[in-house]
# Entry
Amino acid sequence: MKYWLMKSEPETWSWEQQVETGEEGEGWDGVRNHQASNFMKEMKLGDQVFFYHSGKTREIVGIVEVCKEYHPDPTDITGRFGMVSVKALKTVQMPVSLKMIKSDPRLSELALIKQSRLSVMPIPEDAWHIILGMAK
# Structure
């Protein structure tokens, strides 16, 4: 299993909306960055993903699981980009802010810090467990 982080602006797609999709999950559409798209191509069923609210709040608010591997994104009229589908697993007990992540030197190499505009990124297993600890 691999670990990931996906960003969404809560005004566009919120954690609450994700939870409401239930077991069926929801397609993570609209990704048009090639690097982020390539990361989604690597995702496998059962991989776990931090759900990160970008924009004003900038915090991890939940954990989702990949429930459908890379498939066509119907919002891309060019047919070049795809998406994965994810379902909500759990709300984190304590949201983990970007400020908290930046304050931990063990997390200084995360793409979340180094490539702040990237919307889909891998999270190394050790960093995953550190962040889970922050979320209690």
Observations:
- The first helix runs from residue 15 to 20.
